[in-house]
Amino acid sequence: MAxxxxxxxxGKRVERGKNISPPVTTEESPEQQYPIFSLRYxxxxxxxxxxxxxxxxxxxxTLYKLSQMTWSQINSSARHGSGYERIAQTSIKASxxxxxxxxxxxxxxxxxxxxxxxxxxxxxxxxxxxxxxNFSLYEH
Length: 140
Prior knowledge:
It is a single chain. By secondary structure, this protein is α+β, with helices and mostly antiparallel strands. It has one domain (30-131). Helix content is 14%, strand content 20%. The chain contains two helices and five strands. A hairpin with a 2-residue loop joins strand 4 and strand 5. The longest helix is centred in the middle third of the chain and has 15 residues, at 53-67. The chain is globular, with a radius of gyration of 19 Å.
């Protein structure tokens, strides 16, 4: 049954639900945190929409697998396993979004066989920019 919202309830900010409460924030180092993944800035030319069903499934599997590890664990993993490799911005053949300044380190995780997803990390969040399923984003 839906709850009636009265005039006095309009505009009130809900801080927590019956079964969900806001996450507890800590001053924990990003290296000890689990990664958060964002597709907010994904390039339309190297997008999830162009992927096959198998590639989409592999992408979801990779995000899940990485989300179960801390950044410290990811950092110590092999680059073709659960780890990553750095990619120089100068080697990227696609246009780089304006908000990515020259000092930002690009990194690539493998999501489908050896096909990389390339983006950058800001604290605990990894922003996926490109899915290089055809190996055309940079020289491999």
